[in-house]
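Field reference: sequence -> structure
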Amino acid sequence: MSGRVLIVGRPNVGKSSLFNRFIGKRKAIVEDFPGVTRDLIEDKANWKGKNFTIIDTGGLVTGKGDQILDSVRNLVRNEIPKADVILFVVDGKEGVNPLDEEIAKLLIRFKEKVLLVVNKMDTEREEQTIGDFYTLGFDKVFPVSAIHGRGTGELLDEIVKYISDGTEVETGQGIKLALVGKPNTGKSSLINAILGHERVIVSPLPGTTRDVVEVPFTWKGRSFILLDTAGVRRRTKVAYGVEFYSVGRTIKAIEDSDICCLVIDASEGISRQEKRIGGLIERRGRGCVIVVNKMDLSPLGTVDWEKVINKELFYLEYAPLVFTVATKGEGLEELLASVAQVYDQMNRRVSTSFLMRSVERILKEKPLYFKGKPVKVFYAFQKGVTPPSFVMITNSQEAWNQQYRKFFVKKLRELLDLRNSPIELIVEER
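Structure field:
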């Protein structure tokens, strides 16, 4: 288990910039207005041979009335006791803010592991105001500039003092599962239901989740990494800025995942966006489970939904269909079991002899001809897994048109018992 370093503070003090500086890449979204980061974003960092997990959090505010910001405050309160180090970030240019004082009251009982980070200290002259921040009650104060890197080395030197020798970063092994779909279909609710607590923020407002949140999880002895993503909207409705980056990260999450759960809102039906996202999953060769969520609000029954899915998402014919009500915890066991089944099939290897017999059966059932001559497969072998890829050595590559390829792959799934796995077919001419 790696050491945990938690970054907290009010909105727009530069927490995400500091997070990105430590991990060496632009993972947390950074914009010059408050409230961009809402979920917990985790990644690995290393300094002087010591590894630790760094956690970026949403901006803390006081008072009631804003559901999203209230949720952020609750998340941070749950995480603070588990952290080895707490980086309390304040804005050096603005000086001590009343919100900083409220947060200090929340953190003071954890004083021994709090490092006060005064950010936006770009020059030595600006550091002259550092004494004002000692009024917050913390002894260890570090002036830094997260954007320029100034002072971050000294801060890291202090952080690793709290991390015991030999601590290793978790490897992140497990089935990478991306929950994707248009906004407000219940993706975050599904993650929270699976985990049994509020690990990511849920809000009825569309567009709550902006970063890709990686959440390790174990179910029946199997390891998963759940990827919660921002919903993908139609391109004409995506403004440049925060949501532009969120859509890009959703696509990247699909590419980085092993399996995608395409989450559909049962109360709304299938839109053009679900079709586009499904097409992206299919073209990337990812495993898929189609999740029809909010079934308690659906005007259609399960049989009718199966007909709709078969018609509208026919290119995902290999994807199992699961019905859920995330808010009631219904359908979660079937969902995880389907994911495990898809993953196992995607990593299955078949013997060359069995593959050749299957190929012969398919060609016998529906022969392929080119310019009046029968097309032959001289040799076939499995090239790889995730997804399973099969190479056909043939006498005519040109004869394998798109229609026949689809038929061939469908029959290959049946004969090789890969009914829930995508298949990559590679045809090469001898």
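Note: The chain has three domains: 3-162, 175-346, 352-429.
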